[in-house]
Amino acid sequence: MFRYFNRGLTGAIRQTGIHGRRVVYAGAISGVAGYLYFNNMSSLGRAQIHNDAIIPPVKAVSTKYNTVTTDVIDKLRSALGEENVITDKEVIQSSVNSQWSYLVDLPPSVIVTPSNTEDVVKIVNVARDNHIPIISRSAGTSLEGHCSAESGGIMIDFEQRMADVLEVYPDDLQVRVQPGVKWVELNEHLEEIGLNLFFPLDPSPGAAIGGMLSTGCSGTNACMYGTARGEWFVNITVVMPNGKVMKTRQRAKKSSAGIDMTKLFVGAEGTLGVITELTLRLAPKVPTSVAVAPFDSIEDAAKGVAKVIQSGISVNCAELLDDLAIIANNNSGSTYKKYEEKPHIFFKFAGTQAHMAEDAERTAAIVKEFGSKLEYAENDDEAKNLWEARKWGLANIASMVPNSRIWTTDVCVPQSKLPTLVQQIKSDAVEAGIYAPLLSHCADGNAHFLLAFKDDKEREVVEHLVEKMVERAQALDGTCTGEHSVGVGKKHHLVHELGEETVRALWTLKNAFDPDNIMNPGKLYPDIDTRH
């Protein structure tokens, strides 16, 4: 049974794996904690966002591209085989839209499905020689229009034929994969071959490794394991815009041999080159358990989490659901239990059973200082039941507004500023008459607001709220995007956040790698004149 704590403690998903993947076993899982995203924006056009108050009045950079002609198609078919070049417009349109995004991705002229690095070299050479843009796509779960073909061009789809685990190095805690491998399937595969290892970055369950690196992803596990900007990507193989192949470094666990070229591509959104292989660092799987604590306010919840972490307790996750998200859970009927209609923190602890029990006891004592009582799961079934409210949070929220669509966005601030940010945004939403529940990686100061709208008029209101949300986060020394990256939807915020000189430095890097601007153009980099 569930155990409730006052002062003392008196005691202390798996899905099908990868089938048919090519694996070399060199040398001798976690459950899905990501979001279930729910959205369908196919009937609405892509938002055209401008903010002259943020972007300085400088000359925009533009590039004209050639169209994909029958001659280009013939060259691609000759290089890849006819069956691996898709030109049917209906098939293309059905393949490109991100399932989760409020934006509707613009379709490319053609989709190609390579099987290896050599195929990608051929594609890049055709694109460069004909001045045609390239868009790389791993799984299409990104939220900010990263895979939208703003200028048409060639989309490289890795999900079809470049989704293999290539080699496992268990003694080194490493694995080499292709970009289309999904993290959930990778972890299932590692479990199936008998390894007590997993890849801990956990964004959307459908996300693939190539896109995870390219967007600088993270998830609920970031509290313990960090983000894609940590040391989880050992090296990558990249086809550069000039058609040359670069491997960023060797597999040694540490290296001080110059600039870390791997990290240049983390968060670069496919704008510097095409990633074809990735070596990942793995972590040992350790037992986890779950506890839940209600709070009277977001401020009390955030302060409680901060003190728990400062106390050295091994917190794997600390997820905040506000009162609206809890009400959605209670009304959904899809989870194990109902909760008080107030903010809740869902903790995950990691370690031995004795260690987790001790951590839970210490956490119970801390949250009691903030008026809360901890409910701790004593076994795996209870932990699974408690975690359901977080796991199904977005689906439960969507069920509250069945005739609406959900704009899913995030910002991030220093953890101490999270209560201020949430209070401001919730006040803005109430004033605007918009339903806006909160799911937050509380330990990171990362806030995901889910804004519901029924029509184009309400969409405009939501769009304005998102702009204000970003401005408020940046005013609190935060960022326009904690883990969704920039894409099309948020690039206009970068000058204000990073400064014009930093943005010019980003453009300098982009122009050095990709002087013809054929790699995923229109994403990430604000449109400023870089010639000064």
UniProtKB/TrEMBL annotation:
Subcellular location: Mitochondrion
EC category name: oxidoreductase
Chief location bin: mitochondrion
The reaction(s) this protein catalyses: (R)-lactate + 2 Fe(III)-[cytochrome c] = 2 Fe(II)-[cytochrome c] + pyruvate + 2 H(+)
Keywords: FAD, Flavoprotein, Mitochondrion, Oxidoreductase, Transit peptide
Cofactor(s) required for function per UniProt: FAD
A Pfam family assignment: FAD-oxidase_C
CC per GO annotation: mitochondrion
InterPro entries in alphabetical order: FAD-bd_oxidored_4_C (IPR004113), FAD-bd_PCMH (IPR016166), FAD-bd_PCMH-like_sf (IPR036318), FAD-bd_PCMH_sub2 (IPR016169), FAD-linked_Oxase-like_C (IPR016164), Oxid_FAD_bind_N (IPR006094), Vanillyl_alc_oxidase_C-sub2 (IPR016171)
Domain FAD-binding PCMH-type: 104-285
Domain of life: Eukaryota
Coiled coil residues, start to end: none
Family: Belongs to the FAD-binding oxidoreductase/transferase type 4 family.
Full protein name: D-lactate dehydrogenase (cytochrome)
Organism of this sequence: Wallemia mellicola
